[in-house]
# Entry
Amino acid sequence: MEIKNIILILVIGFILFEIIEHVIIPIVFYFVKRKKKPFTGVESLLGEVVDVRQWEGKEGQVIMKGELWKAVSDVHLKKGNKATVRHVEGLTLKIEPLGENNQQKQPGKNSND
# Structure
C-alpha cells in the first residue's frame, strides 16, 4: 500500500511539472514579451528623441543613439532643437518638434512656470 502511494505521488508530481513547464511558463513569457518595445528594426526608431545638428528649410541632419541621420520635417527647426521620430522612409527620418504636448515633464517643475 505504501509503494502505491509513493508511485501515485510521483506520477501526479511529474504531470504537474510537465503542465507548468509546457503550458503555464510559455503563456507567462508570451504576455511579458508582448509588452516590450522592439529593440531592432524600424519599429525601434519610432518615438525616439533626436537632436538637430544641421537644418536648412525642411530637411537636415539629426543625431539619434550616437548616429547621424538625414531627417525631414514640415516645421522649420534650428540646430540644438529636440524632435521625435514619427516615420521612417528608407534612411530618412520624418520628425516632429518635441513640444509641450509630447515632452516628458521633469520632476519638480510646475506647468505654470
Remarks:
- The CA atoms of residues 29 and 35 lie 10 Å apart.
- Helices lie at 2-34.
- The mean pLDDT is 85.
- Residues 1-36 form one domain.
